[in-house]
């Protein structure tokens, strides 16, 4: 609950209230520093590790030079004439004081002033703005978003020097009080979408955003569990986010998250990547078409193969070579399903393997397991070939969540085809098409970018 208690004019009362509400004695990183400024008692509160020591030393040095006769009558005048720093705010209630202090802002109480002086000389621990591992570009910039929201907004400001670029700071979570930045071009954004987003974010009633943007996405849009296709596009590239802003889209940044959420989106937006725009038009179009075609194959290649193996008379003579030649010891559907799980197992193992060993172990696992599983009779060579293509093809598009959505559609097609033959294949195809066409997103549009009523 918000603490609407007003700041007292007596420093001792303010200090007693702060020490009562905050674990100053138990938490080593909440620091209280008592000094005298112009003959008046004063107290600093700050979080150790968030404060720039050099800046605070210079500010305190200027305070020690203030004489008693030079002290202004109120906190606002003191902030204007006596604090040699840019970001200073005068706060009148303890709710805002606690929020600022726990965010890293230094808070100053001076006896006789019925207000708190918030000096924003904080610095956050942050890694360098290196290129994201997942979303690389051959010719584009090599910087990427980090976990500090102010750094991320600066990376986009650097690219868009337009007065219409607005970055509105909001707050979500009763306990976490996580900063959320709503970024948009005021003259290009869909005003109805912007109003809807503003309302939804302000109306969120949760204790915290445990998983940063994923928690925010679930609060913004209550997805239907049976439709796995992603409702948002995420990127860790500031150039991609800046390009989307210039197209009139909305970018949402969450503090402690190194990625940006982009709205509105469509299936074509999600399968795009930065390389499509850093090459000539013809090359970019070829890359887009190739990726779309490969994405299509990842869904339908193995189900079509299974359908023809169940109906060998349908197989044209020119494609007779694709038929399974060896003895089938395990039904093809079980081979395909086991390999789907095995591929995920190898992927999870690679994620948790030390980086220096991941590449050689992945190669050894793929070669050894693939070779001996065929020789031992568990799997047929044709099944291994098609599943290997599907496993590699999943990496041609950058969206991780979309990759698993395609996987679930492929599994659904495989099971229906195995059980109901061609009728199941047709029914599964209809389900895939409907899942894409009727996947309504937060913007009120489907994946095909058609506005739905």
Structure description:
It is a single chain. The protein has 453 residues and is of the alpha+beta class. It contains 14 helices and ten strands. 28% of the residues are buried.
Proportion of strand residues: 5-15%
Helical segment tally? Answer: 14
The helix/strand order is: HEEHHEHEEHEEHHEHEEHHHHHH
| Overall mean confidence score, pLDDT | 86
Distance between termini?
Answer: 38 Å
> Class by helix and strand content?
alpha+beta
Q: Helix proportion of residues, in percent?
A: 40-55%
The geometry reads as elongated
User: Radius of gyration in whole Å, from Cα?
Assistant: 29 Å
Strand order of the largest sheet: 1-2-4-5-3
Low-confidence stretches: none
For the report, how would you describe the main beta sheet? 5 strands, antiparallel
Number of strands: 10
